[in-house]
Design brief:
Blueprint: H1 13-20, H2 35-53, E1 58-59, E2 62-63, E3 65-68, E4 73-76, E5 79-81, H3 86-107, H4 110-114, H5 117-133, H6 136-143, H7 151-176, H8 182-190, H9 196-216, H10 218-224, H11 227-230, E6 241-244, H12 246-249, H13 274-277, H14 298-310, E7 317-320, H15 322-327, H16 331-336, H17 341-362, E8 367-373, E9 380-382, E10 386-397, E11 402-410, E12 416-419, E13 428-430, E14 434-445, E15 452-466, E16 469-484
Antiparallel strand pairs: 1-2, 3-4, 4-5, 6-7, 8-10, 9-10, 10-14, 11-13, 11-15, 12-14, 15-16
């Protein structure tokens, strides 16, 4: 017999709200040491050395890496990319996506656990937090009601946030330094002459770093990152993941070190919950694969330490595949199954696209020329015996050296190239990483051809000038049309 339904009038409003929204509990990750913790530290240092250091490198008297949006040029060491080179950005994004798919299919969320900016800066901010406020239990006591807001508590909180703000502001400054020459940016900050957009992005990126790494932390991974949602479609039973060995660990339970747990019907898991305490997202890996797991391996290091103390074999929590757990297969067999068709396909496509990308960069012609007809004067008769068409040629020099450029035109008999003033067109000097718009006139003898549109070719030859001497010759062939009126 069904019991009486509860009166909706007596249901507490708080209970309704908690059923609709998950109430966030602050996570206090416990510090842990081990091989995966060391790898995280290595990747923190590598990524931040690159991020903070690259804007300060110089190349040919300019910033080595600079994305100059105002001038519409991307400088990457000796490579200068223009808006016309968007194909390289497209290839780079495709390669990045395929690499992410490959890493996920091989070993889950490796990028999230070791190289994602959210993970890296959260690790940096938590390190500062531990140094100032202490480890897990000290931070819990500090935030608890039993610790009143006295001088010591204010001192610790202000110190922590001051250090967070310094790191966040330096990060924002470095980020803007990739789009504005960082030496100029530093001078503008010191002289208080920073532009409005620079100031906005400096403040925005600093605030985002401080908020995401200091407060939101795992909430970004849980609710804001789309990668966490679709990673399940890229993994299979042979993907290496941080996995709890349920066969070996269950049933879990506490016991003394000297107790024969097998005779007591217990598994190797002592139910100490340290794997939960060290998790930066606060999940229990023993509940199985969860989208909140970022694959950092902190629970592996913590569990291995417990296994050492209990004198049990390591690897109760380990990187392995679901198939290896279910079939009790050795780790060597699981590693061999990594090289499956999906992985081979991803690898082959990445190798092919990378080869195409590098070959295209190596054979890239730094000389570009765009021929545009003057719509205001398509064709006209001059000097009584010649037909003239007017063009504009935009020459772009994306090399690091000045370039001497000359022009020829073919396709019709007796073609001549003149300047807009009617003088013979001489060689044009185009400065490094710059472009120049050149108005020209092309004329042909009257009566040589009948009326109509005729294809012609502009042969553009550029000679790079290296330290005043002639260097590599670059060629371009651009098509256009010559109009002979009736």
């Amino acid at each position: 017999m069904l019991g009486a339904l509860p009166d909706p009038k007596v249901i507490p409003i708080q209970s309704v709200e908690e059923s609709l929204y998950e109430v966030r509990r602050k996570i206090y990750p416990r510090s842990v040491s081990g091989i995966f913790a060391r790898w995280r530290i290595v990747f923190v240092f590598l990524t931040q050395i690159l991020f903070y250091g690259l804007p300060w490198l110089s190349w040919n008297d300019r910033q080595a890496i600079l994305f100059d949006l105002v001038q519409r040029k991307f400088y990457i060491f000796g490579l200068i990319l223009w808006p016309q080179d968007v194909i390289y950005l497209t290839l780079l994004l495709i390669l990045s996506a395929l690499s992410l798919f490959l890493f996920t299919a091989v070993a889950g969320r490796l990028f999230c656990g070791y190289a994602c900016p959210q993970t890296v800066y959260t690790e940096v901010f938590m390190w500062i937090e531990r140094k100032v406020e202490g480890d897990r239990f000290a931070r819990i006591r500090l935030d608890g009601l039993e610790w009143p807001w006295n001088f010591n508590k204010w001192r610790l909180k202000i110190t922590k946030h001051a250090l967070w703000v310094i790191v966040a502001c330096w990060t924002g400054f470095t980020f803007v330094g990739y789009f504005t020459p960082i030496h100029i940016l530093a001078g503008e900050i010191m002289s208080a002459t920073l532009g409005p957009w620079q100031a906005f992005w400096l403040f925005f990126y600093s605030f985002a770093t401080w908020g995401n790494a200091g407060f939101m932390r795992e909430q970004v991974c849980k609710y804001m990152c789309p990668y966490a949602r679709f990673q399940s479609v890229m993994v299979d039973k042979d993907t290496f993941l941080v996995t709890y060995d349920t066969v070996r660990g269950e049933p879990r339970g506490g016991r003394s070190k000297s107790e024969n747990h097998i005779a007591s019907g217990l598994g190797d898991c002592v139910d100490c919950s340290i794997c939960v305490q060290v998790c930066p997202t606060g999940i229990d890996i023993r509940d199985g694969l969860q989208y909140m797991c970022i694959g950092c391996g902190a629970c592996i290091d913590a569990c291995n330490q417990v296994m050492d103390k209990m004198q049990y074999p390591k690897g109760l929590i380990r990187y392995t595949s679901e198939r290896a757990i279910l079939e009790r297969a050795p780790q060597e067999s699981a590693i061999r199954r990594i090289f499956r068709p999906r992985i081979i396909f991803y690898t082959a496509v990445i190798v092919i696209l990378t080869s195409v990308f590098l070959a295209s960069l190596a054979t890239r012609n730094p000389l570009r020329a765009d021929v545009m007809r003057d719509r205001g004067a398509l064709a006209r008769e001059v000097d009584g015996d010649r037909i003239e068409n007017v063009y504009r040629i935009q020459v772009m020099n994306s090399s690091e050296n000045a370039m001497r450029v000359n022009f020829k035109v073919t396709g019709l008999p007796n073609l001549q190239i003149l300047t807009s003033q009617g003088k013979p067109l001489m060689d044009v000097l185009v400065e490094p990483s710059s472009n120049q718009l050149i108005p020209i006139r092309v004329s042909s003898s009257l009566g040589e051809t009948t009326s109509g549109n005729y294809p012609i070719h502009f042969e553009v030859e550029g000679v790079e000038l290296h330290k005043g001497n002639d260097g590599v010759t670059r060629l371009r062939d651009e098509k256009s049309t010559f109009i002979v009126p009736r």
